Amino acid sequence: MPQYEYVTREIGVPVCTLTAADCEELLRGRRAAELPQWVPLNGRRAEFQVPELPDDNVVLQVPLPNGKKLEVPLPERCKEGDTLCLLQRQDDTWKVVPKKHRFSFVVPPCCSGDVLRLKPTDHLELNFAVPENVEAFNVVTLQADADGAWNFQQCAVLPPETEPLPLPEWTSGQYQAILDALKSKGYLDRLCPDESGVLNVGVPFCGHFHEYITLGNFLVKHRLEMPGVQEFSIFGMELFDDYVRDWALAQRWLWRQHQISCCIEAGDLAQDPTPKAQWVIGIHPEVTKGGIIGSLLHSCRGLCCFATFYEEEKDTLLNMIDMYKVECASVDAFENPFYAANELGCHPAMRFIVVVDQSCGENSY
Asked: What domain of life does the UniProt record list for this protein's source (predicted)?
């Protein structure tokens, strides 16, 4: 039986409670709508190669045409010789991203000959005509050549759909307990769909998205308890596309079992905005990056639910939320009911739950 390949990343976990004063200077005093993620690009861009580095934790100083120098923290996984792109925003700040040479995506439900609109980079959109031998939920990879032209590289086909792969215990344990707690506290009644009757659910920093079966079954089971909801759409984001095969398995299962559309993309939540949502479920956010929390709050006019390991994380998260929530929002923090009958252990996953109810605000973004 195939097994999951686990890919790990290091993230910052506070050992003491952080406040607004600990945020990057760029983020202090800004409203959520003014965060860099939500400021449009102005079209100016530049490229440079990463020079020889003494170590991985460096800040590059890049000279600009106006004589000033831009401090650029080296993006994760970048190394000597890689090309970085500088993209200027309309507020004169800069977005820094590695230049992409490869782009993978999951083919959505469609027919051969359909044209998909793809956006492998911020400044490039591609039309991809689906070939006859490519089916929904295949994983297609495009490669850029030396001249910048994108070409078809490969198409990976998922194994036949039989029984779902065995999933981690937390999906039916701590994660299920979060959803059940939200229901018991009456939060489902406050979820309102968009004008088309679609409840858009955001799953940021979703990793493998192992929880797809638990979430999908919960949404369908309790749809009638969500006023006006006719269907569901799930959007996820993760920093790298290491898990694209797992995303494809999740998208196939959700569509075939429940007709739930699902799209997960690689993107940097510290620099990229997320689509509008009425319900955001963020498991173990990197709370040391307050701008990510603010951006998620700005994307959501409904419920934002977060879960953390430790009390310092939870308290830091509450401070970040206080900086960026809408004025009328209510905030609730409580311990995961799962641990009422289970041992905490050294690193209790999803121990603290924080719910931000922004359904009181106007549905504007």
From this structure: Eukaryota
Q: Give the integer Cα–Cα distance in Å for 154 and 244.
A: 14
Of the listed ranges 137-146, 159-168, 232-241, the least confidently predicted one is 159-168
The angle at the Cα of 209, spanning 137 to 105, to the nearest 5 degrees, equals 35
Whether residue 340 has pLDDT greater than 90? yes
Q: Which of 293, 287, 279, 281 is nearest to 325 (CA)?
A: 293
Q: How far apart are CA 328 and CA 209, in angstroms?
A: 32
Band (pLDDT 50/70/90 cuts) for residue 16 is low
Using the 8-state DSSP alphabet, how is residue 22 labeled?
A: G
Rounded mean pLDDT, 259-285: 93
In 101-196, at which residue ranges do the beta strands (DSSP E only) sit? 102-106, 115-121, 124-129, 139-144, 150-156
String of DSSP letters for 266-305: E--TTTS----EEEEEEES--TT-HHHHHHHHHHEEEEEE
